[in-house]
Amino acid sequence: MAARLSRLLRLLLLLGPATRGPAPAAAAKMKVVEEPNTFGLNNPFLPQTSRLQPKRDPSPVSGPAHLFRLAGKCFSLVESTYKYELCPFHNVTQHEQTFRWNAYSGILGIWHEWEIANNTFRGMWMRDGDSCHSRSRQSKVELTCGKSNRLAHVSEPSTCVYALTFETPLVCHPHSLLVYPALPTALQQRWDQVEQDLADELVTSQGYEKLLRAVFEEAGYLRTLEGSESAQQEGGAKGLVFETLDNCSKAHKELSKEIKRLKSVLTQHGIPHGKPAETSSSEHLGPKTPTDRTAEQLLGDPGLRGNTL
Ligand SMILES: *[C@@H]1O[C@H](CO)[C@@H](O)[C@H](O)[C@H]1NC(C)=O
Ligand SMILES: *[C@@H]1O[C@H](CO)[C@@H](O)[C@H](O)[C@H]1NC(C)=O
Ligand SMILES: *[C@@H]1O[C@H](CO)[C@@H](O)[C@H](O)[C@H]1NC(C)=O
């Protein structure tokens, strides 16, 4: 009886501190003694930036001058179990709100460049955040008119791509996000020339886009494509951009000549070749013909393709 009582007493003593007192603080004190190294770094009440490792430095501050005052400031939003922090022209981070020792904190993007369309700054891209499968987390920040500076909304429209809405009185004027007025005079003049060349049909619309992009790159609004992730994605289309109508006509002439040559080779070897319209209709509407199956075989063994992908 005495032995049982003393065991019960010991048990009560052990449980005592945990059931009384403010649990997190007590737990924190105990954990510091047990795991001094990891706990300090993962404590949600301590600044966590020390363990966030940015992959690169942010781009220089750029864009409309009246927005520069946002640089160096940070705005946060707590949504369900996460706290999001936006530091314009620097970074977007995410901090899990939990008492667990291994709370998650991550970088959702580092200030990269503006998104520009129709002479308007459409959003701020924060890229090269923490790894997410084979890519990096990235965030697009949209600036909308509001009574005060406020991170108003965060969502994840596709995996590891975040959409942030930042409200600020700085963009309430209808002209506040226009690109042309933000440019230095020399670049405005270059833009004028590009518009003139387009009107005079001296450049194609692709050439126009390319020349305008160069103006935005020089202004520091866009980053050059070399070496960036987006360059690798767009690389395939690069050879198809023609700066002038002359370039385009020349390329068209050469391609027509090549098609003629290839057709004559096919005829020489007695291989039937129809107009493109006929092939596409048999592919989409007609039943499968032997030639379709041959085409499939020519594409290669599906198993083999699966291995190489
Ligand atoms: C994010 O930006 C803020 C504000 O400039 C800076 O203090 C902080 O160190 C940055 N965090 C990271 C992880 O780079
Ligand atoms: C382009 O911006 C102008 C105002 O700057 C606007 O009136 C027009 O509707 C916009 N066009 C498109 C396609 O967004
Ligand atoms: C386009 O044409 C210009 C001169 O008309 C030439 O200098 C340039 O190399 C050409 N570009 C391409 C991609 O053919």
UniProtKB/TrEMBL annotation:
Signal peptide: 1-20
Keywords: Disulfide bond, Signal
PROSITE patterns found in the cross-reference section: DMAP1_BIND, MRH
Keyword Protein transport found: no
Species: Equus przewalskii (Przewalski's horse)
Protein name stated in the entry: N-acetylglucosamine-1-phosphotransferase subunit gamma isoform X1
UniProt feature, compositional bias: Polar residues: 41-52
Domain of life: Eukaryota
Domain DMAP1-binding: 179-282
Gene3D superfamilies hit by this protein: Mannose-6-phosphate receptor binding domain
Region described as Disordered: 41-60, 268-309
UniProt cross-references to InterPro entries, sorted A to Z: DMAP1-bd (IPR010506), Gtb1-like (IPR039794), Man6P_isomerase_rcpt-bd_dom_sf (IPR009011), MRH_dom (IPR044865), OS9-like_dom (IPR012913)
Residue ranges constituting the MRH domain according to the UniProt record: 72-174
